[in-house]
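User: I'll paste a sequence; please echo it back and then give the predicted structure.

Assistant: Echoing your sequence first, then the prediction.
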Amino acid sequence: MNDPLATRITPEVLAETFPGAEGIKEIAGDPPIASVLMDGEVAGYAFSTHETVHPQGYSGESFDIIVGLGLDSRITGTTILETHEPMLGPNLIPVERMSDYLDSLTGMDVRRPVRITGQRGVDGVAGATISATAMHSAIIQASRKVARIEGMVAGSTGPLALDRDSYDDETWAQLEADGSVATLDLTRGEVADRLGVKISEDEAKEPFVTLHVAIATPAGIGRNLFGAKWYTNHLAQLELGEHLLVIMGEGPYSWRGPSMQMTDIFQRIQIVQGDKTIRLTKNDQLRHTAIRTEGAPRLNEIGLFRLSSDSGFDVLAPWRFELLVDPQEFGNAAGDAEPVSFSLPYRMPARYVLGEDADLEAAGLKEPTYVLFGLLKESGLNNWQRVWISRLPSIAGLGALLLTLTGILFFQDAITRRRRLHRWLRLGFLAVVVVWLGWMMDAQLTIINVISYFSAAFDANYDWAVFLIDPLVFILSVYVALTLLLWGRGVFCGWLCPFGALQELLANGARWLKVPQVTIPETLQTRLWTLKYVVVVVIAVIAVYSMSTASKAAEVEPFKTAIILGFDRAWPYVLYAGLLLTASLFIERFFCRFMCPLGGALTILGRFHLLHWLKRRPQCGNPCHVCEKSCPVGAVHSDGKINMNECFQCLDCQVDYYDDRTCPPLAARRKRISRLAEAGPSGERPAVAAVNG
């Protein structure tokens, strides 16, 4: 990215970015912009997102995408030259797949509003939503900046511009329906009332004139009215800044008037815009052709005029067409009466105007659209806000999942008193985490998330909005941060990690199938626990020097392979993930316990949590060792204490704690109470030892 733009836009890059280009005329400006030649003429521009808008990806580093932009403000192509995004690479999501996604921008008019969302509509790059959105946004922003620099988006009302090129076949009725053609229909009675003339009822019903008016400059209007050939011919007669006005009439009254033989000014018509009145003259008139629109009425008068900006006419602002009727030209009206005018308001339909929704709304061209039950105006939302609103169902689903987990943690005593309830509640929750949260929503936190958050915290220029592009991951990260402070590492690792949940579900299946389980001696296990801390430190040190290298080192986590990419990856990565899952059949949560850098980082961050809700008794560890043996991850030491740094909050030990058939102190108490009951009222009452709980 530090090389000059001229060396980066190779012939191969130019051919992909600007198909059909002959070469580059020059590269100039700040940011540097290359003028692209076709048929010996400048046909557009090529530029880099890196130098034009200095984009920031998920990694916090910029990326270099060469973009082509035609003179019509449409993107001609894109080429990714360099990226440091953690989810992109030969063995991850291929850059070619991201390129295919960005190809959807080819042909897009950058003057039009562009919606960027993080929904899973970008299935080709699922798992790299933040990177895809950042690149998508950078291309649009860079293209708009270049279009402004090169004067390609100058409009008559600031940020708005007339769309001259868009075209769809439409009938006369369709043109009238959206205001492309405005119609004024007058009867003799309506005119007589304005003139103060009394006429018979039958005469009042007679048609006076029907006028149709349109600005025919946009192809969507003019080409539909005149046909492609004659529309092009009419446009060729215009000078820069001029627009086509077409006036069409039916009925006995002539809007031209007989006096046109003696004067250059059309006496019966005028254009009024604001405080300006524009009179049309013979010099403004162009030679017209027939109206060819399907369903057009039988017209007896057609006029085609040029309206120039020199006259003060603004094609995007409201104006009105006025028909002037002289009393002397209407029957026996009084000769000294003043002419009366009949107005036909006209406003260019919003679909022919280029600009952002907010600018269209401010100009009165578009009604605001409200979202979130009418609370927010859609045009005022930025990219991440649109993503959040578009993913409200998923966010609600995650909210329900987290609320359920919070309820489990707060009411764990009531749940763990019922062994069957706890078992099915936990297995069901873990299944939802694997299938919905992991495989369907891609909401798998990784060590890269933790490193990215820390990097952003120490970078004053980091745009935190980058993290908001993926709402589920962001919400999950906030929840994990809060639960780290309260309960420590176990809440995420034991309940919300899709890969961890997958391991535990497989382990449960293995035990059901009588697969022999390996018990690791406490001394060896203590040494193995340190391995994950070594891994997280190594990755963190690497990240200080290179985030992209750290992303490669983070491949020790199989999360991308098994969860985010759903095993759709090169075979060595699938084999590695498969081996770890196979190990979990014999040693529950093998990877979580001994190798996971994310688990190591969360252990360090949550080491001094506030709440200690897992209950113990004085008998735990001496003489009782039930929980030590039943803990699936070996977090209960031989002395009965729970190592909260290694505890996954599965609550299995609490189930044993409340089970009077499993916990020896409770079992002994139950037996003594049973003997007491058998002795009856007259029997000897044996002393009952106190037991905590």
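Residues 5-154 form one domain. The radius of gyration is 38 Å.
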